[in-house]
Amino acid sequence: MLIARVAVGDDRAYARVDTDAGQVHLLSGTPFDGIRPTGETRPLAEVRLLAPAEPSKVLVAGRNYGDAVTPDLVVFMKPSTSVVGPGSPVLLPPEAEEVRYEGELAVVIGRRCRDVPEAAADQVVFGYTCANDVTAWDVGKPNGHWTKAKSFDTFCPLGPWIRTDLDPTDLALRTTVNGEVRQDGSTKEMNRDVRALVSRCSTLMTLLPGDVILTGTPAGAGVLRPGDEVTVHIDGIGALSHPVDDHQPPAPAAPT
C-alpha cells in the first residue's frame, strides 16, 4: 500500500495512492490510527504531494555504509522544521559553502514505542520512503557538529509516499543530480539493518508515530549547487525529486 500526504486546495489530508488508476483515496485522520477511507477520490495529477509524514523528530544513522564500522550506532538528529516534500526546493544557507546530498532509505515509525527488541522491530514500522539527508559539511566537520549541519530548514526532503508492504533488506538506491548518477548502492550494504537501527534508536528515546529514521547513505555523496535537480530513487518505493536554490531572505516586516 502507498500512503501519501496531499494538498487539495487549502486542505491537507493523508491518502491512499493508486498509481495504476492515477487516483488518491482520501483518508480520515492519520493512517497510524488505522486506514479510514472517506470515500472521496481525486486525480493524482490534481493534488500536490507533501512530505508523507510529519515527524516529531528525524534520527539519522551515521557511518552505516562502508568499512568504518563503529562499535555502537552513530546517530544525529534533524528537527521537524527541516522536513519538506517532493518538489520543494532545498535552500542553501548563506553560511555554508559545502552542502551535500545524501540519498537514503527512510523508515517511518507507526506507533509509540520504547526499548523495542530487534525481533519485534517490524511491528513498530509503518513503512518506508525516500529521503535526502542534506548536510552542510563545512558546518559540521570542524568540531563534529553534525546535528547542527543537518538541521537547516529544507534539509530533509521526504517522499513521494510511504510504502507499507516492503522488505527493506536489498533495495537498489540511486541518487542522480541533473540526470547524472552520483550514488548507486543497495540497502544490503548497510552495516546495521533496519531492525537493528529501530531497536537501538528506541533505547535512546521514545519513538512516536510518524517519526523518521534515516538509515545512512552509500558512497558518492557530493556538493549541491543552485539550479541542481536531485532525484533519489529506491526500488519498490519510487522517486523523490527536488530542486536546489539559494537561500531566500525573509520578506521585510510590514510597516507599522
Structure description:
A hairpin with a 4-residue loop joins strand 2 and strand 3 (23-27). The strands form three sheets. Strands 1, 2, 3, 4, 5, 6, 7, 8, 11, 12, 14 and 17 form a twelve-stranded mixed β-sheet that branches. A five-stranded mixed β-sheet has the order 9-19-18-15-16, with no helix packed on it. By secondary structure, it is mainly β. The protein has helices at residues 137-140, 146-150, 194-204, and strands at residues 2-8, 11-18, 23-27, 37-43, 48-50, 58-62, 74-78, 83-84, 90-92, 99-100, 103-109, 125-132, 135-136, 156-163, 172-177, 180-186, 212-214, 229-234, 238-246.
Fold topology:
Layout (H helix, E strand, L loop, with lengths): L1 E7 L2 E8 L4 E5 L9 E7 L4 E3 L7 E5 L11 E5 L4 E2 L5 E3 L6 E2 L2 E7 L15 E8 L2 E2 H4 L5 H5 L5 E8 L8 E6 L2 E7 L7 H11 L7 E3 L14 E6 L3 E9 L10
Parallel strand pairs: 6-17, 8-14, 9-19
Antiparallel strand pairs: 1-2, 1-5, 1-14, 2-3, 3-4, 6-7, 10-13, 11-12, 11-17, 12-14, 15-16, 15-18, 18-19
Regions with pLDDT < 50 over 5+ consecutive residues? none
Residues in β-strands, percent: 35-45%
* Rg for CA atoms: 18 Å
- Estimated helix fraction: under 10%
Biggest sheet overview: 12 strands, mixed
SSE pattern: EEEEEEEEEEEEEHHEEEHEEE
Separation of the first and last Cα atoms = 51 Å
Q: Total number of β-strand segments?
A: 19
Structural class: mainly beta
CA-based shape: globular
Figure out the total of helices: 3
Q: How much is the average pLDDT?
A: 96
